[in-house]
Write a structure and sequence with these properties.
The structure is a single chain. By secondary structure, the protein is an all-alpha fold. Helices cover about 80% and strands about 0% of the residues. It is built from six helices and no strands. Helix 2 runs parallel beside helix 6. The mean pLDDT is about 90.
Length: about 160
């Protein structure tokens, strides 16, 4: 079960989020055009589903090393220089993620000090905002996982 979660967690949750988005948008279209009304909660579920899917998709891309990279130059460098370039880029990226975890944590902490109720769902906004620092932390963990697996492979190739 843990292996399945490792390989498919982000994909499964993104799939659920995308299904929720499609369902809510279709429901809104049907309600608006056929019944001249709308469900106020459907738009918020679609928006939160999109936010969750984007951040979890970014985490999945870290796991798969699918983020956009310009590897043409790196592939033509000597191995030591190529590894150094990839490591430097990933260290800068990790630094950015750590900064974002800190800043989104500050923002989320502010939401715990005030009450902000989402108008459509009637739920406190802080619970939805927790997803952003959590997925940023997941991206950091996936980055560490990439390097751990690269080390287990005997540092063959590049950690791409």
């Amino acid at each position: 079960m843990i292996g399945w979660l490792d390989r498919h967690f982000e994909e499964a949750v993104c799939g659920v989020c995308l299904c929720a988005i499609a369902t809510c948008v279709m429901l809104q279209v049907i309600l608006r055009y056929l019944f001249a009304t709308a469900a106020p909660w459907a738009e918020e579920i679609a928006v939160y589903g999109m936010i969750f899917a984007v951040y979890l998709g970014a985490s999945m891309a870290v796991r798969e090393r699918s983020h956009i990279r310009i590897t043409l130059l790196i592939e033509h460098l000597p191995r030591r220089l190529a590894v150094a370039a990839v490591l430097l880029a990933d260290l800068l990226w990790c630094g950015f993620l750590i900064l974002m975890v800190y800043l989104t944590g500050l923002y989320t902490r502010l939401l715990f000090e005030v009450t902000y109720i989402s108008p459509g769902l009637g739920l406190e906004q802080k619970w939805f905002q927790l997803v952003i620092p959590a997925t940023l932390i997941l991206m950091l963990l996936r980055m560490l996982q990439v390097y751990w697996r690269w080390g287990r492979s005997g540092f063959k190739g590049l950690p791409l």
